[in-house]
Amino acid sequence: MKVSFPFLYELRVFMVFLNNEKIIFLKTRKVAGTSFEMALSRYAKAGDIITPISPDDERARKELGFASCQNYMNQNGTQVFNNHISASEAEKKLGYTIWNKVESAP
């Protein structure tokens, strides 16, 4: 089922991308999203994207044995994906093929 939320394209949100599970999680502020983001990171594989959260939350995520922030920078060390990325920017940076594949997953 494809669900569209056009207003998300303008919001700044946190991001986790899990390729194998076909999940793009975009978290808005003040909705218990950090807990959900940390829970999703449990399923992250080496090639998935996880943007950084606060240092305290990163420590808690590591203590739980979950994947930490990864693959959010390019080879030059420049941050490509950030914790305030809009949906339109995430789509642009992930690419249409990946975005469309995830968006149309059952």
Task: Describe what you observe in this structure.
The chain is α+β, with helices and mostly antiparallel strands and 106 residues long. 32% of the residues lie in helices and 11% in strands. The chain is built from four helices and three strands, in the order ββαβααα. It has a three-stranded antiparallel beta sheet. Strand 1 and strand 2 (23-27) form a beta hairpin. The protein is globular, with a radius of gyration of 13 Å. It starts with 13 loop residues before the first strand and ends with a helix.
What's the count of strands?
A: 3
Radius of gyration: 13 Å
Mean pLDDT: 80
Adjacency order of strands in the biggest sheet: 2-1-3
Largest β sheet strand count, sense and barrel closure: 3 strands, antiparallel
Low-confidence stretches: 1-11
| End-to-end gap | 5 Å
How many individual helices?
Answer: 4
Shape: globular
Structural class: alpha+beta
Question: Percent of residues in helical segments?
Answer: 25-40%
Order of helices and strands: EEHEHHH
**What fraction of residues sit in β-strands?**
5-15%
Summarize the structure.
This protein has helices at 33-41, 55-63, 87-94, 96-103; strands at 14-18, 23-27, 49-50. It has 106 residues and is of the alpha+beta class.
List keywords for this structure.
106 residues; alpha+beta; 4 helices; 3 strands; 32% helix; globular; disordered N terminus
Task: Draw up the topology in text.
Blueprint: E1 14-18, E2 23-27, H1 33-41, E3 49-50, H2 55-63, H3 87-94, H4 96-103
Antiparallel strand pairs: 1-2, 1-3
